[in-house]
Structure prediction request, 144 residues.
Amino acid sequence: INFAAVGLLILAVVLFVLEAKIVSHGVLASGGVVAMVLGAVLLVEGPPELRIHWSTALAVSIPFGVITVFLLSLVIRARLRPPATGVEALAGEIGVVQTPLNPTGKVFVGGAYWTAAADEPVEEGARVRVVAVEGLRLKVKRAE
Prediction:
């Protein structure tokens, strides 16, 4: 076994992991595929019939790289998506006033009733937009 080839295989794994952590648009993953192919071809030192052939190395490394880049692109898109749950998801949501806001009252937002405060009086049934969340109280303003 050639230890330089083992180093190339380890480098390939490191490059795939770095692609997940750093958005390089596939550059690190491509380097990982090249390192994996070279590492696989150089891995076994011996007679030619015992060595890993280029076709085998390419047949394993390229699909592995494509699958890795595809899955990493899904991870990156999921990271960029805004939060779907929790207090952070309420910001910007539209709700309906249940009791008049003068300056506080109840609103229905995101499937739940919340205590809300507004800077100006808002009548019952009006639509409001959540501006901020302060503890269990929403800061709202009239929706346009």
Remarks:
- The two ends are 70 Å apart (CA to CA).
- The first helix runs from residue 3 to 21.
